[in-house]
Write a structure and sequence with these properties.
The chain is of the alpha/beta class. It has one domain: Alpha-Beta Barrel (TIM Barrel). It is built from 11 helices and 8 strands. It has helices at about 5-15, 25-35, 45-50, 60-75, 95-105, 120-130, 145-150, 160-175, 185-195, 215-220, 240-255, and strands at about 20-25, 40-45, 80-85, 110-115, 135-140, 180, 200-205, 210-215. Strand 3, helix 5 and strand 4 (about 110-115) form a beta-alpha-beta unit. The chain is globular. Bound molecules: 3-methyl-2-oxobutanoic acid. 3-methyl-2-oxobutanoic acid binds next to strand 6.
Length: about 260
């Protein structure tokens, strides 16, 4: 059972093998995802909503992310653990981002994720040059919910689609190891995926990204508020958490998830 590394993900992209990812915030679920064969476990700051009951990810602190990264890392043997840099822990610039990233990595994250396009390119380069693997995140970036005017699909018109294409290329050139594309039209996600040599992980970005991620509580039907259109409840008819998670991974691998009803 070889541990998943960034090189593994690049090989999977080249071999057109879909990359599977779910979020987890604790030891038990992390173990379950790992033993179900998920390639990536993402300690997302979505925990602000799913675990803490906030309306957004903005209240999540770096200390809380360290705690959850440590819990998840103890449950994972094979999957690559990605930890989210929370709001306010990297926006001041590369030096702040480097301090925050070091804390998440000392807690057990193997890759750090940060949100944003062009303004984050310098920070990504700074981190990668110092040995910190980075997952970029563009499209709907939930930490910018107030700037974006809500949780809205991005890149629908040509100027914003062009900006996302350019952002993706610049983030790759700066050394990002992978990139999350959230809530963008499927056609745009396909173009970006084809233009990059690093893997793209989609959430609400159609079926043609190199991998897929969902928020665990959404795909298990555990979140008490409405889930986004791009999610699917895999607990329906599954009978157990393990079967639901395995069914998700299988649906991503064989291309039956996401369907057009989960895409824009
Ligand atoms: O916070 C999170 O869980 C995320 C993923 C859903 C992409 O950013």
């Amino acid at each position: 059972m070889k541990p998943v590394m960034l090189t593994t993900l690049r090989e999977m992209k080249q071999a057109r093998q879909k990359i599977t990812c779910l979020t987890a915030y604790d030891y038990s679920f992390a173990s379950l995802l790992d033993s179900a064969g998920l390639d990536l476990v993402m300690v997302g700051d979505s925990l602000g909503m799913t675990m803490q009951g906030h309306d957004s990810t903005l209240p999540v602190t770096l200390e809380q992310m360290e705690y959850h990264c440590a819990c998840v890392a103890r449950g994972v043997q094979r999957a690559l653990v990605i930890g989210d840099l929370p709001f306010g822990s990297y926006q001041q610039g590369p030096a702040q981002a480097c301090d925050s990233a070091a804390r998440l990595m000392q807690a057990g994250a193997q890759v750090v994720k940060l949100e944003g396009g062009a303004p984050m390119v310098e920070t990504v380069r700074f981190l990668v040059e110092r040995g910190i693997p980075v997952c970029a995140h563009i499209g709907l970036t939930p930490q910018s919910v107030h700037q974006l005017g809500g949780y809205r699909v991005q890149g629908r018109d040509e100027p914003s689609a062009r900006r996302l294409r350019e952002d993706a290329l610049h983030l790759e050139a700066a050394g990002a190891g992978l990139i999350v594309l959230e809530a963008i039209p499927a056609v745009l996600a396909r173009e970006i995926t084809q233009a990059l040599s690093i893997p793209t992980i989609g959430i609400g970005a159609g079926k043609d990204t190199d991998g897929q991620v969902l928020v665990l509580q959404d795909m298990l039907g555990l979140y008490p508020r409405p889930s986004p259109k791009f999610s699917k409840n895999f607990m329906d008819g599954a009978g157990s958490l393990e079967v639901a998670i395995r069914n998700y991974a299988e649906a991503v691998r064989n291309g039956t998830f996401p369907g057009s009803e989960h895409s824009f």
